[in-house]
Amino acid sequence: MKSPIRIVDVDRLETWTKYKAGLCDSCAANCCTMPLEVQLPDLVRLGLVDAFEVDNIAHKLIAKRLLKARLIDHYNPKHNIFTMARRAGGDCQFLDPVARRCTVYDKRPETCRLHPKKGPKPGFCAYGHKDLQ
After folding, report:
1. Could you tell me which residues come within 8 angstroms of residue 37 by beta carbon, excluding any fewer than 6 positions away?
2. What is the pLDDT of residues 28-69, one digit of tens each?
3. pTM
4. Which of 4, 91, 112, 116 could form a disulfide with 125 if both were Cys (CB 3.0 to 4.6 A apart)?
C-alpha cells in the first residue's frame, strides 16, 4: 500500500511539519521553492561575487550587475539583503530539477544552512511531497 501523498502549500505555515531528524531524507525540497534571501558573504561563497568587489565596489552596483545577469530578483539596500532569482516554476536556481537536491550544498547560503532553525516558522519545515506524476 502506497503512503498518501501530502501536498504542502509553502505559503500556508499551518501546513508545515515540525522538524525532526531524518525528515530531509525523503524531502521533496519544498523549502527550495521559497524566496531565498542572502547576504554578500553568501554570494562570495557561491562564487557570484568576488571578495574584491565587496570591499571596493558600492553594494548597489553589485546588485545592479546581479539584477542584469538575472541572478537576483531584488536588493534591499537598507538591510543589504539580496533575493535570489528563481526558475519560472518557482524552484531555486541551484536545485537539481530531477533529483530535487541542492547542487551547491557545500557552498549553500546561510539561510539554507540554518533552515529550519531560522525562517518564517522556526522549528518547522514545509515538508511534503509535490504532486508525483
Report:
1. 81, 82, 83, 84, 111
2. 777 788 889 999 999 999 999 999 999 999 999 999 999 999
3. 0.77
4. 116
* CB atoms closer than 10 angstroms to residue 72: 23
Domain-wise residue ranges, the chain: 1-35+87-133, 37-85
The residue to which cell 554578500 is assigned: 40
Q: In this structure, which amino acid lies at residue 26?
A: S
SS3 content of the chain, % helix, strand, coil (to 5): 30, 15, 55
Residues 6+ apart with CB under 8 A from 128: 6, 7, 8, 15, 17, 28, 30
CB-CB contact of 61 with 84 (8 Å): no
Contact present, 17 and 111 (Cβ < 8 Å): no
Q: How far apart are the first and last CA of the chain?
A: 17
Q: For residue 92, how far is the Cα from the chain centroid?
A: 6
Cα atoms in the Cβ-side hemisphere of radius 13 Å centred on 61: 7
